[in-house]
Amino acid sequence: MLTNPQIIFYVVYVIYYILERKTTRPAEKTHNYLEWTRYLMFFSWNLILIVTISESVFIKTFNYAFSVVGIIISCIGIIIRIYSKAALREYFDANITVKNKGQLCEQGLYRYIRHPGYLGSMIQGFGMPMILNSYIGFAGACLFLFAVFIRIHYEEKFLCAELPGYSDYMSRTKRLIPGVY
Fold this sequence. Notes:
Oligomer: single chain
Strand content: under 5%
């Protein structure tokens, strides 16, 4: 039988999934040499889910305060991710690419940081294990964090080479935390 945190976890994940599907267009078919970074993120994201759900089966008591904090953190991450995808509109793509001789986006959160979508995903990635009190799930979240940093490294190298003005944009903004990093 499902516990309240497990039900809430599934509800939060279904809301995320629906919003993600509504705001994502299919990725363009490419043979991008950086596509492996997307698969690394996909693998580590699913590892968070699998480990978190598996561990929750064996947890008999839940710290509900920890679960509530996880719900709040996950929802903040989802909002940041969806808001940043909305700012990019048709320029968002799951692949590392520049569409239609792309334009640099400096709207919304992109005014302050270069990767708000990744920031939202990382925040959500740490909130999901908290909902189910999955301490092992944090290991998956750390792997996801590592995968995102690898992705950002290669994405920024690509954008500096392919998107006019990106190097200047890098000098004016931080990667993930305004004024810090």
